[in-house]
Amino acid sequence: MEKNESRKKMNNYQLGELFLKIVEIKRRIESGALNYKDTIDALQNVIENNGHIMAKVIKGVAEIRDLPHTVDLDEQPLEINGYMVVSHNGGGVFNFDDRAVTLFSEDIPKNGYQLKSLITNAFNGNMLDFLLNHQDLIPNDCREVYTCFLGTIYQDLQDDQPYIRAMYNYRDCYHSVLLPLDNDFDRCTPILLPT
Predict the structure, then answer these.
(1) pLDDT digits (tens, 9 = 90+) for 119-160
(2) How many Cβ atoms are within 10 Å of 67's Cβ, its own excluded?
(3) How does residue 67 score in pLDDT terms, banded at 50, 70 and 90?
(4) How far apart are CA 128 and CA 110, in angstroms?
(5) Cα 22 vs. chain centroid, distance in angstroms?
(6) CB of 111 closer than 8 Å to CB of 122
(7) What is the percentage of the chain residues whose pLDDT exceeds 90?
(8) CA 7 to CA 18: how far, in whole Å?
(9) What is the DSSP string of the chain?
(10) Tag placement on the chain: N or C end, fewer CB within 10 Å?
């Protein structure tokens, strides 16, 4: 299937609605209610899928600004059939910035203090889901590896084995997979951590 075939076409009503919104933006710029440059920058961010925009009205004049990409790390993690969440480290709301994340790729023993410390500090499955939904934000370093998210641990209900979720790239698209927690974490399976 070609890329364009998967796109949803707009019907005439939707096209008319879009046109009316553009006319309204033009009217507000002309009246001084919107700043031209801020509006153009915000629209460009929408076109490039660079986050959300928010208009805030101050004394009758709208200010448009970008909202950061935020991840609620405390939110309930994804449920997976046949697995139970046994640990989810949370971490509050994280404003995503690729400079604020790093891949930890030293050889880590399967058990011991270092692994427990990494589980406590690593990003959880909510970050993985956020990145899968915003694949343009995924750091290039994640392209050739299985990026691990140790902050959420699942248990297989049949054999009691602990698992974590990981992200991998296949044909320029990222996907998730479950990996055993007793996996070797090294340069091929690094852990995503806050910087």
Answers:
(1) 899 999 999 999 999 999 999 999 999 999 999 999 999 998
(2) 11
(3) low
(4) 22
(5) 29
(6) no
(7) 49
(8) 17
(9) --GGGGSPPP-HHHHHHHHHHHHHHHHHHHHTSB-HHHHHHHHHHHHTT-SEEEEEEETTEEEEEEEP-EEETTSPPPP-TTEEEEEE----EEE--GGGEEEE-S-B-SSSHHHHHHHHHS--HHHHHHHHH-GGGS-GGGTTS-EEEEEEEEEETTT--EEEEEEEEETTEEEEEEEETTS-BSTTS-EEEE-
(10) N
Please, are residues 154 and 147 in contact by the beta-carbon 8 Å criterion? no
What are phi and psi for residue 29, nearest 5 degrees? Answer: -65, -45
Beta partners for residue 108, in sequence order: 185
Tokens of 11: 């019907």
Instruction: Tell me the one-letter amino acid at 73.
Output: L
Average pLDDT, the chain: 84
Task: Report whether pLDDT(90) > 80.
Answer: yes
Ramachandran class of 159: left when φ > 0, alpha when ψ lies in -120 to 50, beta otherwise: alpha
Label residue 3 by pLDDT band (50, 70, 90): very low
